[in-house]
Amino acid sequence: MIIGTRDSRLALAQTDIFMELMAAVSDEKMEVKAVKTSGDIDQTTELKDMGGYGAFVRELDNALLAGDIDVSVNSMKDMPVFRGTEIIIGAVLPRAPVEDVILPMRIEDLPYGAVVGSSSVRRNFILKSVRPDLEVVGLRGNIDTRLRKLDSGKYDAIILAKAGLERLGIRREMHTLELDDFVPARAGRDRDRLQIVR
């Protein structure tokens, strides 16, 4: 089985989780094929301006359809809402923490007019509703790149998914955002096993 995934540390960590779960139920030999997606290559264009279709899954979908890979492992947040019938979501990994986090300080501790980095339309909208004075600026790149941008002083704070930080074992000063305000991107039901989607 050839498993396609994005060429990023987080995507590869999530692929390891998938492979461990598969190994528990199958003797299938597995091989990982890392793919650079348009969302990884283009670090400047806003995601909402990148064609309207899964900037982080398009190349993986094409590889599936071409028979270059057998399955792909993706983050659910990167999946387009509407998909064709050629490719199905066959399984969903156990749900990691659903909360967003802000680094390095709480929202209420940010100075007036502080610059906060985020690439999520959802997060940006909620953030501006909670603190209209803040300047929300686009933030692209993998988790390590985003943390380097924060450390460089380009941003006063950034917002990330708690799940990604935990899956990479990153321990830094961070503050979990209240679910009542920061509604998760998608609901998750099964945290205990690989869930087959019918």
CATH superfamily of the largest domain: Periplasmic binding protein-like II
Helix content: 25-40%
CATH architecture of the largest domain: 3-Layer(aba) Sandwich
The low-confidence runs, each spanning 5 or more residues with pLDDT under 50, are: 187-198
SSE string: EHEHHEEEEHEHEHEE
- Give a count of the beta strands, DSSP E runs of length 2 or more: 10
Mean pLDDT: 85
Strands of the widest sheet, in order across it, are: 7-6-8-5-9
Which CATH class of the largest domain applies here?
Alpha Beta
Judged by helices, strands and strand pairing, the structural class is: alpha/beta
Number of helices: 6
Q: What is the CATH topology classification name of the largest domain?
A: D-Maltodextrin-Binding Protein, domain 2
Can you summarize this structure?
The protein has 198 residues and is α/β, with parallel strands linked by helices.
Question: Could you explain the architecture of this structure?
Answer:
This protein is an alpha/beta fold and 198 residues long. It folds into two domains: 2-89, Periplasmic binding protein-like II (D-Maltodextrin-Binding Protein, domain 2); 100-176, 3-Layer(aba) Sandwich (D-Maltodextrin-Binding Protein, domain 2). Helix content is 27%, strand content 17%. It has six helices and ten strands; from the N terminus they run βαβααββββαβαβαββ. The strands form three sheets. It has a five-stranded mixed sheet with strand order 7-6-8-5-9, with helices on both faces. The radius of gyration is 18 Å and the shape is elongated.
